[in-house]
Design goal:
Blueprint (H helix, E strand, L loop, with lengths): L1 E7 L9 E5 L5 E8 L5 E11 L5 E4 L4 E6 L1 E8 L3 H13 L5 E3 L6 E5 L2 H9 L3 E8 L30
Parallel strand pairs: 1-4, 2-6
Antiparallel strand pairs: 1-5, 3-4, 5-6, 7-9, 7-10, 8-9
Amino acid sequence: MRRIIAVEHPFPTETPADSLLLDFDHRNRRRLVLTTQAGESLLLDMPRAVHMRGGDVARLDDGSAIAIEAADEALLEIMAMDGAALVRIAWHLGNRHLPTQFVAGDGGGRIRIRKDHVIRAMVEGLGGRCTDIAAPFDPEGGAYAGAGLHDHSHDHGTPGHHHAHH
């Protein structure tokens, strides 16, 4: 089995031999067997977790390149009536440690999260508008994320504030 030995940003000018279509979780790993679009198994075996984005290239141990493509996922795209309302919603999402993607665009920003009916109800209760979309998901890594994974520990300073970090 060929091995992925590096991930290169941005996409080089060479034509990749194949591609990997991966969701967010599979683009953030240290060790995993991945299957290319043509059906070949490749071993991702890195010293630390890597964050691969659509447009990157996986460099194999034989020098060949495999394109990384970000798969569409079921997401909620969140908008609000103004910037202050969107910031308030972002604070509530962050307080729940949800992977969150911020998208700038015409007419203001948007937030993308994984589709979740409970969070949708919370966002709508805060005045946000949610739209179901299918798109690549590339959330912020966070201040403590290091190699792009949401994996950290810290003290929120509140007695009884305990939760798992993923």
